[in-house]
Write a structure and sequence with these properties.
The chain has 84 residues and is mainly β. 0% of the residues lie in helices and 46% in strands. The relative contact order is 0.28.
Amino acid sequence: MAPISPATTAWGLPILVISFLAPKTVAVADAPRIVVGVRRNTQVRVSEDVRFDSDQVGFKLTMRMAGVSLAEPASVQVVKAAVS
């Protein structure tokens, strides 16, 4: 049986998985109201895989971002699941 992958959207909005939240905790945020900053320089990497038979080249862009401030405190809500 194949593993179940997590949903990528909820009500048409993207779901981003982060590792620093406690288990059974969800942060709901209004992204345009959050100010972010770059934590690390952008890196572009080119794939070294052989794809000559289909004329393809793979690129990967990575950048570390961090939340800096909120426009208003209600922009983010933290929801914790009830203990059952």
